[in-house]
Amino acid sequence: MSEVKLSNLEKKKKELKEELVRIQSGIDKSIDEVKEGVSSNMDPKNVIRKYPLPIVGASLVVGFLLGRERKYSGRISSKRSNTGNSFSDSGISRELKRIIAKKGLSLLMDYLDDKVASLKENKGSSDD
User: Fold this and answer.
1) Does the model's pTM come out above 0.70?
2) In the chain, which ranges are continuous DSSP H helix?
3) Is 87 helix (H, G, I), strand (E, B) or coil?
4) Tell me, what DSSP letter sits at residue 82?
5) Contact, 63 vs 100, CB < 8 A?
6) Exposed, middle or buried: residue 97 (CB in 10 Å: 0-12, 13-18, 19+)?
7) Running along the chain, 128 residues long, what does each successive block of 10 average in pLDDT?
8) What is the rounded distance in angstroms from the CA atom of residue 5 to the CA atom of residue 17?
């Protein structure tokens, strides 16, 4: 009788060990999935693809603020030192800023055109 109880206990112990192994592998798999999800969600390319308009807006604001800050700091430093124009006041930097702003607006307009076209397409297919 005690051998039967001992064999039942050994069987139960083996089943519990197998269940613990399954639980541990499930936890490991879940942790790996969470890590992959976080890394893919925090990837700059994916963030830009997911939120293109806010990213463009934020970069325009940051660029504007940095441009204004340099412009004013260039004026202050040129008044103090009388050394002439700094790079931020030069024609090259103004031209680069103009080109970058033009390219940003072009990308924004292309994105908006694509969105409008897809909305029209979706509306046309829903009317059918």
Assistant:
1) no
2) 2-41, 44-50, 52-81, 91-127
3) helix
4) -
5) yes
6) middle
7) 82 94 93 86 81 83 72 52 53 78 79 82 71
8) 18
